[in-house]
Amino acid sequence: MNRLTVAQQVYHMRAVFPQFHAETNRGNWVRWTGTLQPHELSDQYTVAISYTVPFRPEIRIVSPELRRRSDCKNLPHIFPGELLCVHTADEWNGGLILARTIVPWTSTWLYFYETWYATGLWLGEGTHPEFPQHRSA
Amino acid sequence: MSAVAIPSVTSPALGGLDQILFEICEELQLPPHRHDQAESRYKAVAGVLEAEQSPFRSFRPIIYPQGSMPLGTTVKPVEGPHDLDFVLELSLSHVNVDPLRLFDQLFLYLKGHGTYSSMVSRKNRCVRITYADEFYMDILPGCKDLQTGGTCIQVPDRELECWKPSNPIGYLRWFGIQNKLGTGLRILEKAMPLPAQQSTEEKRPLQLAVQLLKRWRDLYYATPDLAPISIVLTTLAADVYNGEQSVSQTLSNILARITDRIVAAEAAGDRVRVHNPSNLEEDLSERWDGNHDAYNAFTSGMRAFNRQLQDLIRRTGDVNPQLQRLFGETVDTVLIKRAKQVQDERRRGGLGVSKSGLITSAAAGVLPVRANTFHGTE
After folding, report:
1. Which helix (H) or strand (E) holds B122?
2. Closest residue on chain A to B345 (Cα)
3. Could you count the other beta carbons within 10 Å of the beta carbon of residue B118?
4. Looking at residue B191, what DSSP letter applies?
5. I need a labelling partner for B61 at 20 to 30 A (CA). Which of A39, A136, B252, B277 fits?
6. B359/B378 Cα distance (integer angstroms)
7. Minimal Cα distance from A112: which residue of B?
């Protein structure tokens, strides 16, 4: 695997999603903060993505706060700490460009999240190891 | 970037809110088989009324549908039956006819008919045929009003034991003009066919706005007796409509103008009066005279709907909860359909994302979304 450096990831991010601003430690860590709006009638979300090469990037919604349905306390497809879970272990590695994977997946997650919040159904499919009963039509 | 948002499958020209209102209207359409069933039942009853043994035959009856079906403003009921109203117009002056006798003659003729005998009942102005499967048909008997002329008719009112003025054909024409359709209706010497159901795409913004108003009404009023009747909402909407082309603009302007009328009526110490524009003697809102609760329910409902819709239009974020509050489960159906389409596209590898994060169909200049699996422990 040809691992990409922080500088390379920052370069790609700036090219594809210029609204994502990067902070780095000039080493192997970077955090981007930027906005995504998955649909014209959606909220605009401020998203923070923290990445330590080559580990799993951590995706957090800064604002607006993710909402829970009254009939379901758990958000779907989330890691503890409200980190979005947008891929399985084998779908991502440090050789992939975050701007071309993690960010589009986050926007897609947000789209399905809004539909889930409105209807109670997660329609983006996926795996849910500990909550296989989670409703998805 | 010329990316088109994925959910815009039907009318990509419409903007975000217009598109979803349009899709809500699509869900409000009567299922085609129920429309077809209404049509065949209408033809069957019209056939009985025109038959050789019919007491009306010698009066050259003209039979035509009225109300929401020919207007193209029918909405699928939240629950319960849907209906079709039609007119049995006799080609003679009402002056020479006793209104209650005409009414009873219609009732008794159908009562004596093998098919309909156990299905007919008397309402105040119409004879109702109730079918076992969530459908009823109201037949409004009437005679020509030669004094007023044109397409005006007089219909029996059982409670008041007199004739009441009406003009269903004039009303359809008026609505058609307001709707900018401009199509006149031809009077035929026999039963006029029920128009084929217009698809949502063929409908004009006014018709869609009326459908939305009616669905809101069905959900907003917990006490159906207090809810404004369809003809009143339809007439008010068409009367204040000003040719707006976007559904959201049409609905929001209609609500703002109806609210203005309420304020003006209050200032004049009066109530809003809704006359049949094609027969000004017919006060469609006459029930408000003796029912202040119903009038207050109308004014407070209109104000609330107006306020909520203006808020929704001004809102920049997620509008799904607001749409659900106004239009109910139909919104869920639309959102689920949309999300399934997005998911199908995603499975085919056809999704893209714009610079702002908008999910679109993959196209030149749009970043394709690589395959992924949503995972997670919670």
Report:
1. strand B120-122
2. A124
3. 8
4. P
5. B277
6. 25
7. B339
Element at B111 (helix H, strand E)? helix B99-111
Residue of B nearest to A16 (CA): B355
Phi, psi of A51 (to 5 degrees): -140, 125
Please write the tens of the pLDDT for every residue from A89-133.
Answer: 999 999 999 999 999 999 999 999 999 999 999 999 988 755 544
**CB–CB of B87/B42 below 8 Å?**
no
Q: Which of left, alpha, beta for B134 (phi over 0: left; psi -120 to 50: alpha)?
A: left
Write the burial class of residue A79 (CB in 10 Å: 0-12 exposed, 13-18 middle, 19+ buried): middle
Rounded to whole angstroms, the Cα distance separating B367 from B352 reads 5
Could you state, in order of their start, the residue ranges of all structural domains in chain B?
1-29+199-347, 31-196
Calpha distance B74→B135 (Å, rounded): 13
Question: In B, residues 274-333, which contact A (CB 8 Å cutoff)?
Answer: 316-321, 324, 331-332
* A61-72 burial code (b ≥16 CB/10 A, e <16): beeeeeeeeeee
Q: Give the CA distances from residue A40 to residues A106, A108, B153, in Å, rounded to whole numbers and listed in that order.
A: 16, 13, 50
Distance from CA of residue A3 to its chain's centroid?
Answer: 20
Give tens-digit pLDDT for B159-189: 999 999 999 999 999 998 888 743 334 333 4
Q: For residue A80, what are its two tokens?
A: 């503890």
Q: Which of B335, B328, B314 lies closest to B23, judged by CA? A: B335
Looking at the complex, does the CB of residue A10 fall below 8 Å from at least one CB of chain B? Answer: no
Residue A109 Cα, gap to closest chain B Cα (Å): 8
Q: What's the angle, vertex CA B372, arms to CA B369 and CA B377, rounded to 5?
A: 140
Pinpoint the alpha helices (H) of chain A. Answer: 6-16, 102-119
Residue contact A79–B377, C-beta within 8 A: yes
Specify the pTM. 0.89
**B223-232, B326-335, B354-363: range with lowest mean pLDDT:** B354-363
